[in-house]
């Protein structure tokens, strides 16, 4: 065994994290590296809580949601004392490379650790929110879209049956990726997301006008609005109330919530997770550290960890244009 | 054409209503009966709003959620004037048989109509709540279970990853069928439903004790509670807050909501819908009216409409026993 | 620990076997019984290959397909020497109760063992074929229907797009349960299954006549035939060829195959598995042995093992009637 | 109405074709263009068989598999007479733009038509095979991967339960895209596809060596091989037989077949279809014709139709590298 690698998952869990762990373990075995997994995110690193990983343990794992290494928040790790402790623990186990699968908070932690530890630190983007700079998609994003979209497909059945207005809140923290993709793929009639949102009353006006225009064509229509979480002042119930008043129609709110974090990863997430995981292991003997492995325009890229939270990441322009066209540009 | 049949869907939509419409239309064609569909529930009956139905229109329909005939509430129909108007409309079109697919509210309407119309009135149980007497299952119930269970499967991924407590609210109006089936099939740790619920503080005590007992075995456990809607005083957020205080742990609420009403029906709902629909058509020449067609112990039954809301319908005893055993009887 | 229970899975794997193992383990823990699992079916019993089972091992197991105890064929076990060896092994471990989850072949083995072992032997019906007497459904049957039906839903998309004839072969050994349920739930136009099959040329004639009749209404129709495996002389390709000649149309064969055995169990299978598993454990202190636990007309029943293969089990009459009606009785 | 657009679907149907039709219809309505749909591929164009399309007809269509415009082969269209007739028909209806959704055969037809018709001809890539130059993905490809992968997930349950070798044949005509993606995403142990295939005996040797190596670690392993269709001399049964002999183990073949063509499109296909469809309509007033609209490295591109079949399209290099690493390079 020429090298020893450690992996951990941190931050919100995302479908495909297990697929990524599997790829890392198998690639390490092929390269004859030892591989361990720290449990409960950075807490495991601080408490030297880990397990040996091998082929058998990751068999039949690619399709499972969640993370077998568990995840957790860890405030202590953010301190210099925490990072030093972590560095000591890594050295104690003779770890050459630490691979962190997580979101921007996890990468900040990894970057901070780099100041106290001389080993190789690699990040892999795992979050359903896709709010990580330097990579087109993150592990878990595709599955979250699929979960949101199949849920909205079900809501549309009822919306059509009753010709009613539904308001569906999807996750996404402070980015509109999930809302935009879910809205476009579910043929939502309107989408409200951070990057395109101006003022509540402008939005209310646009929705009402578009709805009125559509009702001129037919009395019997359903209407689905996709809303990004944490965006509307007072929350989804507030928006539902305002819309009910403005449109004189019943408006039903649906909050998709934590269902969006779990589930068996779709193929795209499994493939992304597997490619990035295997690539990370191929870097173990290379002189590179403090980077996240991502994918841009179909190419694997190595991005300095800092860029993952400093770089602003815009929505896909063509998708925005398309959504506006279908919503009717006048009201978008 | 010796006979003329009309069908409508009323009340909350349920997966399998379309499968039922299809079976009725095909069975009518085979028997050489004319068949029309009233739209928007009883509203269509009052406004003579209907469409002719045939083989082509119901092709590729069996797997679609919602109802192509649409549904709606109709207060006017509950009045004697409404029922008389409906009777006149049915006679105007020479309808011999009216088939109503819906829940107990729809059956009350159908029963009321019987007092003013001499034609044949047949009910078919369509609701995800399964709260209809005289039949073991209702069309849509199986799909709603499946939707709830696959959602809870996803929640469990995150619950396990973070070893956290989740509270999942499922539909069911005033009956615990959906909560019990979903809890058992999703391996929930606890279930709170009308038929088994005593006092909030007793329930809080039971959950806490069971949780403490399980934590003696391991610090790292997840815990999922399934809650029937409209049951907990102050709602799910209230329960989440109370549990957080009592267990000193984060508790995350998830409301499955309207997602449970839609979706492609699972096979069991398609089969039930098809059997009941075809059987209803086989009664068109028989001297029977004012009944719901249901299934009990694997046999098709004809039940007076009144029984469907008067008869109390208990939970499956063996399922209750099983759930209590797995929850640990002491705390159930 | 007052009692010691062993469980094994035998015969073809079926979705829900893991859910059943989980229920048995949890019910044993609640009753304070020890519980072990023999691996690789009866082979494990012969080779004393087993594992201790507890709560942790069956966590998050309810939704997984296959069987964590593995399964395998075992010819040696059918001999008297094999059964004696098994009895000795069971006694060596002080087993009070052996629970076998499997099909009729597995039950024959269990029954044979009873002649050589004085402990309690209980069977639980686990097979996708539903060809077990004494129970309305078997663990795995509902999931296999769902898998077949969602596959046929996909085939129908292409059949409709090209207005083409498709022939879909489903599993079922020598019984037509899966074929009948899958055909009815997928709105197949025709079904060929052992219980309703007379002669190949009669069937060919019926299909052709029905097809011609439907083509009188429209040139543009798709047509789907569900075929039970091992039924048509020369196999599905032979039937496809014969149909092509007779109908002068392209006929595409699809063999669903082993896909039907796996997958996450649907709720109905999880519930059945859980009820039967928990009930089996409740019998551990009762004076009953050599029985299978099944469910009939919604009630749990205990059935002598012999009946499970001796009793003939008919198709659901109402389903047969319904299928014939929808296929058009003249050609059924 | 300043412009008039016609759309048709041709070649093998693919999930997302309906989503594409919907986007085209809505974008045309927004731009105030008239829009018609030719039915049955190029046959409709030759027979002037078409329907007017509008908002209502494409409501609730985005999630449906197949194509509502139907598809079909059309030999007559390949002749000069056929193309001339088509051109006349298009002029008769005053069509400005013809949009063809299909594969390379369909694009050859569209290109041929361009020689006889002065209107605008646009192609959109719709095929599950992804064998179209000039675009990274084709509409339907993502869904076909997902269908194959969820099927192989089910096969793995049985493979694991019995520790058996399974051989799964996926579609893909003469390209290995589907095989490679499905193999990587389903954690297959080996993949056989056109781009990486040398000689049958080399492959047999590699599989056997890899299998033997893995069996040194454990007797109890399952092993899944993904095979591209039409590749192995004598077909999958031949390979199964050869493997059985060579490995002295049972090998079960599974042919996924036509199931892979249908089904509700996954989000990625819906999004691609919607973007490309809306973009095509945005070209209606532009001076460009004889191109396919595709997506490369996240950017919409316009590619001369000829390139779509002349340009060779390689597999994703990183995926090939990853698959080889995980298969163990020595045997890949």
From TrEMBL, chains A, B, C, D:
<dbReference type="GO" id="GO:0003872">
    <property type="term" value="F:6-phosphofructokinase activity"/>
</dbReference>
<keyword id="KW-0547">Nucleotide-binding</keyword>
<protein>
    <recommendedName>
        <fullName>6-phosphofructokinase</fullName>
        <ecNumber>2.7.1.11</ecNumber>
    </recommendedName>
</protein>
<dbReference type="InterPro" id="IPR015912">
    <property type="entry name" value="Phosphofructokinase_CS"/>
</dbReference>
<comment type="pathway">
    <text>Carbohydrate degradation; glycolysis; D-glyceraldehyde 3-phosphate and glycerone phosphate from D-glucose: step 3/4.</text>
</comment>
<keyword id="KW-0418">Kinase</keyword>
<dbReference type="InterPro" id="IPR022953">
    <property type="entry name" value="ATP_PFK"/>
</dbReference>
<comment type="similarity">
    <text>Belongs to the phosphofructokinase type A (PFKA) family.</text>
</comment>
<keyword id="KW-0808">Transferase</keyword>
<feature type="domain" description="Phosphofructokinase">
    <location>
        <begin position="4"/>
        <end position="283"/>
    </location>
</feature>
<dbReference type="InterPro" id="IPR000023">
    <property type="entry name" value="Phosphofructokinase_dom"/>
</dbReference>
<keyword id="KW-0963">Cytoplasm</keyword>
<dbReference type="InterPro" id="IPR035966">
    <property type="entry name" value="PKF_sf"/>
</dbReference>
<keyword id="KW-0067">ATP-binding</keyword>
<keyword id="KW-0324">Glycolysis</keyword>
<keyword id="KW-0479">Metal-binding</keyword>
<dbReference type="Pfam" id="PF00365">
    <property type="entry name" value="PFK"/>
</dbReference>
<keyword id="KW-0021">Allosteric enzyme</keyword>
<keyword id="KW-0460">Magnesium</keyword>
<dbReference type="InterPro" id="IPR012003">
    <property type="entry name" value="ATP_PFK_prok-type"/>
</dbReference>
């Amino acid at each position: 065994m020429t090298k020893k690698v450690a992996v951990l998952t941190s931050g919100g869990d995302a479908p495909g994290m297990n697929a990524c762990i599997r790829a890392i373990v198998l690639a390490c075995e092929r390269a004859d590296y030892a591989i361990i997994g720290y449990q409960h995110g950075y807490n495991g690193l601080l408490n030297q809580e880990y397990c040996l990983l091998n082929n058998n343990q990751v068999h039949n794992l690619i399709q499972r949601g969640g993370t077998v290494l568990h995840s957790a928040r860890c405030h202590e790790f953010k301190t210099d004392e925490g990072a030093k402790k972590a560095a000591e623990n890594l050295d104690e186990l003779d770890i050459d490379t630490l691979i962190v699968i997580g979101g921007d908070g996890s990468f900040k932690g990894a970057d901070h650790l780099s100041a106290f530890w001389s080993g190789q630190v690699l990040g892999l983007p795992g979050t359903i929110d896709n709010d990580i700079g330097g990579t087109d998609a993150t592990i878990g994003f595709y599955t979250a879209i699929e979960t949101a979209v199949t849920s909205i497909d079900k809501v549309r059945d009822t919306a059509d049956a009753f010709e009613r207005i539904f308001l569906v809140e999807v996750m996404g923290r402070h980015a509109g990726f999930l809302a935009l993709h879910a809205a476009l793929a579910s043929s939502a009639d309107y989408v409200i997301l951070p990057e395109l949102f101006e003022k509540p009353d402008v939005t209310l006006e646009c929705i009402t006008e578009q709805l009125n225009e559509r009702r001129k064509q037919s009395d019997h229509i359903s209407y689905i609005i996709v809303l990004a979480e944490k965006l509307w002042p007072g929350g989804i119930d507030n928006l539902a109330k305002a819309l009910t008043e403005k449109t004189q129609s019943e408006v039903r709110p649906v909050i998709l919530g934590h269902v969006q974090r779990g589930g068996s990863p779709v193929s795209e997430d499994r493939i992304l997770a597997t490619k990035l995981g295997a690539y990370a292991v191929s870097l173990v003997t290379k002189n590179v550290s403090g980077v996240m492995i991502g994918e841009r325009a179909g190419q694997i890229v190595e991005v300095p960890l800092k860029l993952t939270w400093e770089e602003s990441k815009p929505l896909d322009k063509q998708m925005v244009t398309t959504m506006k066209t279908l919503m009717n540009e006048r009201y978008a």
